[in-house]
Design goal:
single chain; alpha+beta
């Protein structure tokens, strides 16, 4: 049974919610319209942001290089370029500052327009509050220069706000230098006129592009490239495409830039990639340039030595007239020449190793310079180590150029370079030992051969010594010439760091603000605001407002809901009244008449001010209109109000209830007062306030009075005191047949309903046949229009009003149309 009741209550709650929303439909439509209008204004006022994207792929031409594999073997680390490093470099402020300087983005121009109506032009700043940025269509440009190259500009930022006068001159409204106001001698200037700011010059000139509007406000700003780059870098996003969990598993990078001007966003992305490639080529070619410089210096020295050796050889031949050697010495010398050639090769290798060792020794401990590569070293292992070392030096220099010496990646490369340098020195030391042993061995063999050749002329021997010098120097000279050409070719064959897969592209629809999404959210919020307001108001209210509030808390039926017409609280209804208050009391009267055996009606409440006396008086008056004899007994001895309601100005002790209870009056009929409101209605008022109300109610005189009234009246209405403060109502209730418990709307607190329920169901002193009367419901208040299906609604086809005797006409309160007549 309880479950069914709960289900019914839930159904009524959902139905009531639906009815409330339906009653709020016009407010919901109005709220949605206002919210939509505000959303449209927001979208129009907000500067649209566009997104541009470019895809680039990193060139890993050195990823399979055997040289890099060898140095990785020595150092124990990977020498391939990591894509995370490239992403970091792409987002560096230094690189962005070069882009800003390349595109001239540190000077920006704005036009103040009216939000929403950007094509409407009104002189003055009252409505022109939105700064719309101009990119390549600016009708003017600002040039800043310095008188002294040593001092620079002398400032880092300048802000010039001006108004165009006639297309030929302008008036400065505000000028700021480094965030502080700056005043000049005059405010009106001609376009092209020089403004002196310290040692710098500022010139605002007209350009051929764009149209300038007389009277409109414009703005020019200039910042140093680094400061502008710090602003632009926040709008740049670089990420590795694919989102693979395995790092460095892809070579594709996605660059995204957001900007109010889509053309500028595309230019920034494309220029960023170009600048990055230029930086990479400059750093990668450093090894080849260093090699060429080193070879050029060595060629100059060796060319001198070779020239001296050749001159000595020629002079020796001339002085001794040596043209050809005897044929018989050729065979003897052939064997000797083979060993000499080997000694020459060994000597050349030792000199090369010595040159490389000297080059490394000239560097400081923490200094890392390019080591000449491929200069004639015959050992492939050493050549590979030197090549990989130079690659790491180039990578380190490029990262230092875009960050700092303390970057963790730079420190890691320093460690790898130190390991590689040590490997080079170890290889040179090992090779020296091998070549020295070989050279000593060859020298011993040649010496033995010289002994066997002692019979040859001394001149021939001396000529051979001189020839040996030429044979040693000349191959080295030719080798250096060859290596120089190879380095020159390598310098011009460097590839770009990135290959552009797709140049900057993007949609014409801005990514922010998203108009359609904002409009939908605004409509939903607009529709929800009135409903949420009513819901929150109902959730957080703390006073009783509806019949449902009482039924949810109290297990006693609500017998009637009494409205209020907003007039005098103590007003009484008349027999001719047709307003909602009179009709409500007639309905209450009809409900009570169903209880045929009950003639003593007690009216009480929880606290004072809930209208129990008003209900008791008008209920009694309504019963008297049916021809029944009714008496109202004012039993609220502590705060009597019955005399105010029936306008009884004075009553002596001998004509009051207190006088009867005290024994001053013996006959009940002596304290009966006939009211002017109805011939069938009498009233007994308390009179003076006694010092002991509870004791008077218990002395038996009240029982005598009610017994006498039961014999002479059809109905007895007892107006008793509130139940919470005192026990008077409990004492009186034993004489009653029905108890009407008054609760006043917008007055009684919700937290009191649980106490009222406990009071009505008290097992020790329960009230007889209790019923709830909800009093003073103001149906004209807006909060009730969305909470009630009023009893006086479209289901009834009556005109409710009251007769105005002074004007002699019917005053209509409300007109409704019967649903049955529709």
């Amino acid at each position: 049974m309880a479950t069914n009741t709960q289900n019914n209550n839930d159904g009524l709650t959902i139905q009531a919610l639906f009815r409330s929303c339906w009653k709020l439909r016009w407010w919901m439509i109005l709220s949605a319209f206002i919210a939509l209008a505000l959303a449209v204004c927001y979208v129009k006022v907000k500067t649209p942001i566009y997104e541009r994207t470019t895809w680039i792929m990193m060139n890993n031409a050195d990823s399979g290089n055997s040289d890099m594999a060898l140095i990785s073997e020595f150092t124990g680390t990977s020498g391939s370029r990591k894509i995370d490093n490239e992403v970091f470099i792409l987002q560096s402020p230094t690189l962005m500052s070069k882009v800003v300087d390349e595109l001239g983005l540190n000077t920006r121009y704005y036009h103040y327009v009216i939000p929403i109506f950007e094509n409407l032009h009104i002189n003055g700043d009252l409505f022109s509050i939105k700064a719309k940025e101009m990119y390549k269509d600016s009708p003017f440009w600002m040039n800043i220069s310095s008188d002294s190259e040593l001092t620079g500009m002398g400032f880092e930022a300048i802000y010039v706000k001006f108004v165009d006068i006639d297309g030929k001159s302008y008036k400065i409204k505000q000028m700021m230098v480094d965030g502080e106001d700056y005043s000049i001698n005059k405010t009106t200037h001609k376009y092209g006129e020089t403004l002196k700011i310290g040692l710098s010059k500022v010139i605002i000139s007209r350009s051929l592009s764009g149209e300038i509007i007389n009277g409109d406000t414009y703005l020019c700003t200039w910042n140093v490239p680094q400061a502008t780059a710090d602003v632009f870098i926040k709008n740049l996003t670089a990420s590795v495409s694919g989102g693979s969990s395995v790092r460095n598993s892809t070579d594709i990078i996605t660059l995204t830039y957001k900007d109010p001007i889509p053309e500028r966003a595309s230019n920034i992305l494309n220029t960023l990639v170009t600048t990055t490639n230029n930086e990479y080529r400059q750093n990668s070619g450093l090894s080849s340039r260093k090699t060429i410089e080193f070879i050029d210096s060595r060629i100059a020295d060796i060319a001198g030595q070779l020239g001296e050796a050749e001159s000595e050889y020629t002079n020796y031949q001339s002085s001794r007239s040596l043209v050809n050697l005897e044929s018989q010495s050729q065979m003897q010398l052939s064997s000797d020449m083979q060993y000499k050639n080997q000694m020459t090769e060994v000597s050349m290798q030792l000199k090369i190793l010595e040159m490389v060792s000297e080059m490394i020794g000239q560097n400081a401990k923490d200094e890392h310079n390019i080591i000449p590569a491929n200069i004639g070293i015959s050992d492939n292992g050493l050549n590979n180590i030197i090549t990989n070392y130079n690659t790491l030096v180039a990578e380190r220099n490029r990262m230092v150029a875009n960050s700092s010496e303390n970057n963790p990646r730079v420190l890691n490369l320093n460690s790898q370079l130190d390991d590689a340098k040590n490997s080079i020195l170890m290889s040179i030391s090992s090779l020296r030992q091998v070549y020295n042993l070989r050279f000593n061995e060859l020298s011993s063999i040649v010496d033995q051969s010289q002994i066997s050749m002692s019979s040859l002329p001394r001149e021939q021997y001396q000529l051979q010594q001189i020839s040996r010098k030429v044979d040693i120097i000349e191959p080295l000279y030719l080798l250096l010439q060859q290596k120089r050409e190879e380095a020159q070719i390598a310098l011009y064959s460097e590839v770009d760091n990135f290959r552009v897969i797709e140049e900057a592209f993007g949609s014409k629809i801005p990514v922010s603000p998203q108009g359609m999404k904002i409009y939908i959210i605004a409509i939903i919020l607009g529709l929800a605001i009135p409903v949420v307001y009513i819901y929150l108001r109902n959730t957080f209210r703390y006073r009783v407002e509806t019949k449902q509030d009482i039924e949810n808390k109290i297990d006693v039926p609500v017998l009637s809901v009494l409205p209020t017409d907003g007039e005098d609280y103590y007003s009484l209804i008349s027999e001719t009244d047709r307003d909602v208050v009179a009709e409500a009391f007639r309905k209450l009267r009809s409900n009570i008449q169903y209880f045929t055996d009950d003639k003593v009606i007690q009216v009480t409440s929880s606290i004072t001010g809930e209208g129990k006396s008003f209900v008791a008086s008008n209920l009694a008056l309504s019963l008297s209109h049916t021809g029944k004899s009714v008496v109202v007994i004012g039993l609220d001895l502590r705060k009597p109000t019955m005399h105010k309601i029936f306008n009884i100005e004075h009553c002596s002790l001998n004509h009051s209830l207190v006088g009867f209870l005290l024994g001053k009056v013996n006959r009940p009929e002596d304290i009966i007062i006939n009211t002017k409101s109805s011939d069938k209605l009498d009233v007994i008022i308390p009179g003076i306030i006694p010092p002991n109300p509870s004791e008077l109610l218990m002395n038996g005189k009240l029982e005598e009075l009610i017994g006498w009234c039961s014999q002479h009246y059809d109905y007895i209405v007892l107006d008793s005191a509130p139940t919470f403060p005192v026990t008077d109502s409990i004492l009186i209730n034993k004489y009653a047949n029905i108890t009407l418990y008054c609760i006043r709307a917008d007055y009684t607190e919700l937290k009191m309903l649980d106490e009222i329920n406990n009071n009505l169901k008290d097992n020790t002193t329960p009230l007889k046949n209790p019923y709830i009367v909800l009093n003073a419901v103001n149906y004209q208040s807006s909060k009730y229009k969305y909470r009630y299906d009023s009893f006086y609604d479209s289901r009834y086809g009556y005109y409710y009003g009251e007769y105005d005797s002074n004007k002699g006409k019917q005053k209509i309160h409300r007109k409704v149309t019967s649903k049955q007549e529709e």
